Amino acid sequence: MRFDLPPRGTLTPNDDVDPLPYYYNPWVGWLYRHRLQMGLDLLPAGGRRILEIGVGSGILVPTLTKHYPEYTGTDLTLARGLEALVAPGCRAEFRRADLLADGDLPAGHYDAIVCFSVLEHIRDADGAARGLARALAPGGTLVTGYPMVSPLMTRAFALIGYDRIDDHHVSPPARIAAALDTVLTPLRRAAFPRGAPVRAALYQCSAWTTRG
Fold this sequence. Notes:
This protein is an alpha/beta fold. The protein has a single domain (20-209), classed as Vaccinia Virus protein VP39 (Rossmann fold). It has five helices and seven strands; from the N terminus they run αβαβββαβααββ. Strand 4, helix 3 (125-135) and strand 5 (136-147) form a beta-alpha-beta unit. Helix 3 crosses helix 5 (173-181). The radius of gyration is 16 Å and the shape is globular.
């Protein structure tokens, strides 16, 4: 599945820290786009229902709705104009939902879930992992993506304009992976730089599936 970047000006940020401008930045845009492509490459072919946690500006909506006949996009705050991004023939809905709230998402419903650059913002990593596992259908695939949370990344984000990223990045990759390991089975992993060990990866994507 190839990530199709919507034309500049198509999308609206959903809050004041939405990274939307960086996808088009001539210096770091390739990295922002590459991290999404790494995750999309981990999605298996087929499947009917997909859930995107953290839809943000909707940058993935055209790509995902092109490949899945049923799409649900969630966030704590929804951007304007998301419905206009949906590919023809896809039945899509957008809803405000909290991953930590038991009743916000249907249980055992989604063949695939994508969750990019969300889990590092959630302090309750175990609760987030349980929420993802609960929403995933038997045999379904979860694809997650999250950056390193470290002093190195703090400095890197400061260089591109995020001076207080530590206020937002509260769960490091090791904590997230440990939480997911308790409820799901890991399948595959991709990292940037390619081949980097877990603790050295600047950004990593992983595919998980239900147990049993």
